[in-house]
Amino acid sequence: xxxxxxxxxxxxxxxxxxxxxxxxxxxxxxxxxxxxxxxxxxxxxxxxxxxxxxxxxxxxxxxxxxxxxxxxxxxxxxxxxxxxxxxxxxxxxxxxxxxxxxxxxxxxxxxxxxxxxxxxxxxxxxxxxxxxxxxxxxxxxxxxx
Amino acid sequence: xxxxxxxxxxxxxxxxxxxxxxxxxxxxxxxxxxxxxxxxxxxxxxxxxxxxxxxxxxxxxxxxxxxxxxxxxxxxxxxxxxxxxxxxxxxxxxxxxxxxxxxxxxxxxxxxxxxxxxxxxxxxxxxxxxxxxxxxxxxxxxxxx
DNA sequence: ATATAAGTTAAACCATACTTTAAGTCAATA
DNA sequence: TATTGACTTAAAGTATGGTTTAACTTATAT
Lengths: 145, 145
Hints:
Helix content of chain A is 60%, strand content 3%. The first copy, chain A, is mainly α and 145 residues long.
C-alpha cells in the first residue's frame, strides 16, 4: 500500500535526499506521514513524481514545477492554468529537440571530419579537399583556411 | 581581421564574461593578444567557439571540452582520441533525443488530459472515462483511481 | 532486549557555470 | 588632451539543484 522513502527512491532511481529536497521545496505536498513522522509514498505519489521528473528533465525549474503542483492542489479552478503551463512546456520541448538535432548535425560533421583525418593521418589533408569530396550536408560547416 | 571580445560576444550571442570564463578554464588557448593584452578573436576562433557551444549545449562539461581542445592543440597524434570523444558525444546526443521524445509523449498526454478536463469543467470527469475514450497512445499513462 | 538499518531535521557543504565587483588600463572621438 | 566606453585581472558573489553531516528517532530482525 505504501512505500518508504528508500523504496520510492529505488523505484524512481533517484537518491532519497533528492526526494527530501523536493519535499522541502514544496513539490510533494501530497505525501502523507505516519504517526511517527515517516513519509509514506502511495502509488499515485509515484505517478506525481514521474510527472515531476518529466518536467524537470525537460528543463522546467523547481519553482515552475511547484506552481504546477500548487495548481493541482487548488482544484478545478486552475485547469486552464495547468493546461497553459503544459502547452508552454510542450513548445519548449519541441524547440529543444530542434536545437539538439541541429547540434547533432554539427557533431556528425565533426565525426566525418576526424574520420577522414584518421584515414589521411593528419588534419592538414582535409584543407586540400575539393568541395566535391565533402558530403553536401557537411559543406555548410566546412570553411577553408 | 580581428574581433574584440565584445564583438565576438555579440556574434556568438553570449556575454563577454562568459568568453573570459571559457578562456580562464582553458577553452580558448588559441586566442591571440594584442601588445597591450587585449584578446583578438579571429574568424577561426569564432568557429572554435561554435564547436564549444555545440558541445556545451549537448551536455559536455567544461572539463570535457577542455580535453578536446587540448587534443586539437597537441596535433595529429590525437586524431583518434578526438574522434572517440565526438563519437561518444554523438551517442549521448542520440540518447538525449530519445529521452526528450519520451518526455514529450508524456507532456502530450497531460495536454490531452487537461484539454479534456477543461471541456468537462473538472478533472473528476476523466476518472469515469471508459478505456475506449482514451486515445491509444495515451493509455499507458492513464491509471484509474 | 538490543543491535542495526533506515528514517527524521536543520544546516552546512558542493559542483557547475557563470556574473559581478573593484581597481585599474587602453582605445577612440570630440 | 580629456573623456568616455571598452578592455584587463583577481576575487567574490549568484543560481540551481542537489548531497552530506550531525544529532537524533524509528523500525526490524535476532
